[in-house]
Amino acid sequence: MAEHPSQKSQEPVGYVEVRGASEHNLKHISVKIPRNKLVVFTGVSGSGKSSLAFGTLYAEAQRRYLESVSPYARRLFHQMSVPQVEDITGLPPAVALQQQRGAPSTRSSVGSVTTLSNLLRMLYSRAGDYPRNQPILYAESFSTNTPEGACPTCHGLGKIYDVTERTMVPDDSLTIRERAIAAWPTAWQGQNLRDILTTLGYDVDKPWRDLPRKDRDWILFTDEQPVVPVYAGLTPREVKQALKAKMEPSYKGTFTGARKYVMTTFATTQSQLMKRRVARYMTSKICPECHGKRLRKESLAVRFAGLDIAAMSALPMKQLAATLQPFAVRKTTAGGDHPEKEIVAQRIAHDLVSRLQVLLDLGLGYLTLDRTTPTLSPGELQRLRLATQVHSNLFGVVYVLDEPSAGLHPADTEALLRALDRLKEAGNSIFVVEHELEVIRHADWIVDVGPAAGAAGGDVLYSGPPAGLKDVVASQTRQYLFGHAEEHSAKDVRKPAGWLTLTSVTRNNLRDVHVRFPLGVFTSVTGISGSGKSSLVSQVLVELVSENLGQALSEEEEEEGGELLENAVVETLGGEIVGGMEQIRRLVVVDQKPIGRTPRSNLATYTGLFDHVRKLFAATKTARARKYDAGRFSFNIAKGRCENCEGEGFVMVELLFLPSVYAPCSVCHGARYNARTLEVKYRDKNIAEVLQMTVDEAWTFFDEEPAIHRALDVIRAVGLGYLRLGQSATELSGGEAQRIKLATELQRAQRGDSLYILDEPTTGLH
């Protein structure tokens, strides 16, 4: 392997040397990687880059570092599993900056991610201007996430949540018997409440709007819970007669008002599905106590530079730095008669300004400290976390980054490269998994993994300076890096079938925007990072179309959970659709959230492919003779799975202060099924062997099964032929998860009049 010229004079200790790495699809590889350089790991999606950089190098560095930490403290860390590698020498401690998937908490903000909020709270606590006779507050009193600081009325949310008659009774022309009270539970419990109202003498057959106001208010908002006899199946007239005759009731029922039911269910249920169901009947308004500032009035009474901490946190970081700069250089007196306060103000302001400058250099000056993380693009969040590391002044550390250019406009890449250079110049090693050509060209050293994905990858094709990759014929990266990739001819541009028009859109940095989206064509929304693309498309457009269709925002959110209160109402601060909705009947959002949070969810189960496969096995001669149904071939159902590992394929061994060890099941040896189930075969393969096939292998194997073949065709078309059918959802990258969602959608028989919204679908792609 070639060596970087600047490395030739150095001793071997200047390298990280990996021997015998076999993590995931890596083929017992060995490689030397220089330290104190910008090293980029390249290769097609699924080739094994992340397995080498994160699964091997970072995992081993973390394991070694944690060995020096006390066992008691070690249990507080999220510890990765021990990597499959013979030996690694010359490996320093490592810090990983990975793309964060899933739903971030709405209580997390730009200020908390960058730790700037901690400093700002300290500034207000120690150097703020207090009202006369108000005692000094600790820094915790300026946090919305602590009991000392959060507004007691809204609990630090800035909004209060409640229900209204309109949200709980969307159609007041219906009767109670016709389920006018939509917020009440369905099925038996809802019928029970209606029967109780009949016993109490309310007319359940009169349109809701014709009921007296007093009756409507009591039914919806009472806190009373009367226990009354219920006569199931009787008409209101028969119920009156039964009560008069004091007949024995079917049972005793307890009434619960609609508001009490919604609020209690939301607060106490463990079911995310139930939580989401009742959340749609809740509404929000700005808290009258704190006026949306989320803090106690005592905390908001403290000023610095004439602003309370909420107003200071709402300033764009560029403006915030300008506000604090005079205090940082001691040109402005903060405390007058209190020199110690002036000194504290100068020191904290100086630290804040220096940290803010790093963020400004990365092009993030438009963000505010109170901006919540769910409203940030992945690229913005990655750069925020990178800025924290640039300012940390660590020395001799390996930084392992996962596509830091993801979500960045080419105009922003230069700022990213400057930040990486600063980390390198501080004496650190930078290991980057990347597809962006500008970042690859900027590298001191390239490790190219391939040549293809999955089982066809896992080899190190090249390790050396970028120029040397030009001679590696097997590398797919060199074709693009050195201009040998085939040119694509220009396509005919389709004409729009109509226009979706939005007006007066206001959200984050969008102010009264008017926009028209063409329909019936492929539209790309572009702009530099932070320009408002995500705010416009992923937030406002999704919410407005969902509201017009009366459609839930996302099927996955029921599993993800997330901050349901924040989603209780449409939060568009301004904007409406004024045309084009007549051509849209369905909205499909394909994002990068994980397709499942447990190993039981996999490619085959998520796409529905496994249903076809299980039916195929159930139709075999052996299965019919034994009366096995399709459920027998599910590893989630007791009758077919291995009882020892309960269908997991492995057993977890708990080690008190060490990472849990996962060992293959001693009974099924990782097959997940019991012996009787594995005796059933289709074309000489049992169900476990089919799950071990890649999509490409299964495509050939099931060539006589049209339904399965069609599903596999689509998965291959989105470039995922290398994945195993039984590959756990937890092992998939965000880009792979998004493409699986897209493939699942493309399998639908009828897809007309649908609006598809994709969030950077090329993330993770070569």
Please describe the structure with a list of short key phrases separated by commas or semicolons.
globular, alpha/beta, 3-stranded antiparallel β-sheet, 34% helix, 14% strand, ABC transporter ATPase like fold, Rossmann fold, 20 strands, disordered N terminus, Helicase, Ruva Protein, domain 3, 766 residues, 28 helices
Describe the structure.
- This protein is of the alpha/beta class.
- The chain has 5 domains: 206 residues, P-loop containing nucleotide triphosphate hydrolases (Rossmann fold, 3-Layer(aba) Sandwich), CATH 3.40.50.300; 107 residues, ABC transporter ATPase  like domain (ABC transporter ATPase like fold, Up-down Bundle); 125 residues, ABC transporter ATPase domain-like (Helicase, Ruva Protein, domain 3); 87 residues, 3-Layer(aba) Sandwich (Rossmann fold); 156 residues, ABC transporter ATPase  like domain (ABC transporter ATPase like fold, Up-down Bundle), CATH 1.20.1580.10.
- It is 34% helix and 14% strand.
- It has a 6-stranded mixed beta sheet, with helices on both faces.
- The longest helix is centred in the middle third of the chain and has 23 residues.
- It is globular, with a radius of gyration of 30 Å.
- The N terminus is likely disordered.
